[in-house]
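hiii so um. not sure if this is the right channel but i have a protein structure encoded as tokens and i wanna go backwards to a sequence. like what aa goes where. can anyone help
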């Protein structure tokens, strides 16, 4: 699996499309979708686990730990869950890429040349 992370609107999906070659119709944000790419993982239920995402070729998740800490306890708990899920996905992934300003930085593994 390739795990792609970065800030909101940093260009993650565009990078997956342009560099990895996945078309928009190969990407979905609903868990269980029959697509190779799942995006917006941070929006999934707090009961979602890394095992639930294991069948996807590419998993895209917004980085949620660099902003302001939410006042609401439920929002903090959700952010904590997403952060821990991202750590588990990064551990399991063969390739981890962080995208910011549309520029990809490979932080684990090697991205295949296009």
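sure thing!! here u go:
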């Amino acid at each position: 699996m390739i795990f792609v992370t970065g800030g909101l609107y940093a260009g993650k999906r565009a990078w997956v499309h342009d560099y990895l070659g996945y078309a928009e119709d190969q990407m979905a944000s609903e868990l269980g979708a029959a697509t190779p790419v799942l995006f917006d993982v941070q929006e999934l239920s707090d009961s979602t686990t890394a095992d639930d995402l294991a069948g996807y070729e590419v998993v895209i998740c917004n980085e949620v730990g660099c902003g302001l800490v939410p006042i609401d306890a439920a929002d903090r708990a959700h952010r904590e869950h997403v952060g821990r899920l991202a750590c588990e996905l990064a551990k399991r992934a063969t390739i981890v890429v962080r995208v910011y300003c549309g520029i990809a930085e490979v932080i684990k593994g090697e991205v295949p040349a296009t």
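oh and Residues 2-101 form a domain with the Rossmann fold fold (CATH 3.40.50.300).
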